[in-house]
Amino acid sequence: MVKILFETDLCLGCKSCELACAAAHSKTKSIAGAIKEREISRLRIKTKRGKMKLEQCMLCKNPRCIAACPTGALSKDEESGIIHVNEMSCTGCGLCQKACPFDAIELQTFPTICDRCAQSEEPLCVLSCPTRALKVKIV
After folding, report:
1. Residue 122 sits in which domain range?
2. Per-residue pLDDT at 5 exceeds 90
3. In CATH, what number is assigned to the domain containing residue 85?
4. What is the chain's mean pLDDT, rounded?
5. Does residue 63 share a domain with residue 51?
6. Burial 35-52 (b: 16+ CB within 10 A, else e)
7. Per-residue pLDDT tens for 39-55?
8. Separation CA 8–CA 47 (nearest Å)
9. How big, in percent rounded to 5, are the helix, strand and coil portions of the chain?
10. Which of 19, 55, 71, 139 can pair with 44 through a Cys bridge, CB separation 3.0 to 4.6 Å?
């Protein structure tokens, strides 16, 4: 299981990680493509009470988002811990977003949840961080 660690003191708030994530999940794999496609990042850097905070899926043991889904559209890969969305079953009701205690789910047409860049060897948000505020931990 891949965890992404966040070192608040190192973060500049530049959002390079968010841009890399959106580009990685776009069809063209580019920032311009992500903007045109209105692709959003699966993690977010927010400032709350004057401190930087990372909002991303925390790979919960018993995810509240899955329990809240009335159609069973969310499932968890037990090996990786990643939450998958079945877009055919999802109604876009937003109950998963409301149930997540980490504000990790962004709802557009369907929920977007961090997949740790399953298609890449390492999460692209981590690779793009200029100060190394994001780090990978294999659990």
Report:
1. 1-56+114-139
2. yes
3. 3.30.70.20
4. 94
5. no
6. eeeebbbbbbbeeeeeeb
7. 999 999 999 898 999 99
8. 10
9. 25, 20, 55
10. 55
